[in-house]
Design brief:
The protein is built from eight helices and eight strands, in the order ββααβββααααβααββ. With about 280 residues, it is an alpha+beta fold. It is globular, with a radius of gyration of 18 Å. It starts with about 25 loop residues before the first strand and ends with a strand.
């Protein structure tokens, strides 16, 4: 989506890995949550997104009892019910005009738990920047793309500052809507479609399950250096985006936990508010 091309670009929160939302990859888990608010204005409710933040997702922390003999750390792999509990908590949220999508992957076992909208399409907003950067680094590794110093700077700005100008540049450089099919092919996406209006990249649609597929690829298929590049940029996400929007929400809110990394996204139109935030650790 071109930056404010039609006055729509106001990034909401689409993915959030708060206790009940989004793509959070907490050492052993990836959580993807999408929140779509169809209210006319988000001011009617400080929003369901904030309400969701009051729940605690067990999978985001690990505990260890100090004893002479080391005690195994509790993880989603040790207790599969934790993922289902978190998914059920999201599905149980009942806010009028608000849709939630959630998917959780246990990084130890590869098991994925989906909420009822886990495969449903939602607007991508700025999370498409993460998808695009992963593809760019893949192409570089394959010898099909050279990434200059200036392009590297755009990557950092896209991930840390959610800079729309950076994504506008990528959209123009790599084929516009044709880029979406490249992303679908690379990541094996199953619920992703290109925007209906060519320049509106933020109106690409994908599901929580597709976001997990992207994180899987970034964390396991790219070279260690390129994986680290993305993880570090997400770790260094600024409190405010390039446009001045406060992106320190969800798991990036203060005080920010040192293990949290995230790609935020937000957008609004006259008809809907979509909020997306994705996290991984």
């Amino acid at each position: 989506m071109k930056s404010d091309a039609r006055g729509w670009r106001r990034r909401g929160v689409l993915f959030t890995v708060t206790p009940v939302v989004a793509v959070v990859l907490v050492v052993v888990a990836v959580v993807a949550v999408i929140v779509h608010n169809t209210r006319q204005t988000s001011a009617e409710h400080p929003t369901a997104f904030h309400a969701a933040q009051t729940t605690t997702l067990p999978a985001t922390t690990t505990t260890q009892t100090p004893t002479p003999t080391p005690t195994p750390t509790l993880t989603p792999g040790d207790d599969p019910a934790l993922a289902q509990t978190a998914v059920s908590a999201v599905d149980a949220l009942g806010y009028k005009g608000v849709s939630f999508g959630v998917a959780i992957e246990d990084r130890n076992t590869g098991n994925v738990t989906l909420g009822r909208n886990g495969n449903a399409p939602f607007y991508s907003a700025s999370v498409i920047k993460l998808f695009t950067v992963g593809w760019m680094l893949h192409e570089k590794e394959a010898g099909a793309l050279t990434i200059s110093a200036s392009t590297s700077n755009l990557i950092t700005r896209a991930l840390e500052l959610s800079d729309d100008n950076a994504m506008n540049a990528f959209w123009g450089m790599y084929g516009g809507t044709a880029l979406i099919q490249k992303l679908i092919t690379l990541y094996g996406l199953q619920n992703t479609t290109a925007p209906k209006i060519a320049g509106e990249w933020g109106e690409t649609q994908f599901s929580p399950a597709d976001v997990i597929r992207v994180y899987d690829y970034v964390l396991t298929k790219l070279t260690p250096d390129d994986t680290a590049l993305i993880v570090n940029d997400l770790h260094n996400a600024a409190d405010r985006g390039a446009d001045g929007f406060d992106q320190a929400f969800g798991l990036l809110q203060e005080p920010r936990l040192p293990t949290v990394k995230g790609k935020q996204g937000w957008m609004r139109s006259e008809e809907h508010t979509s909020e997306l935030q994705s996290h991984h650790d």
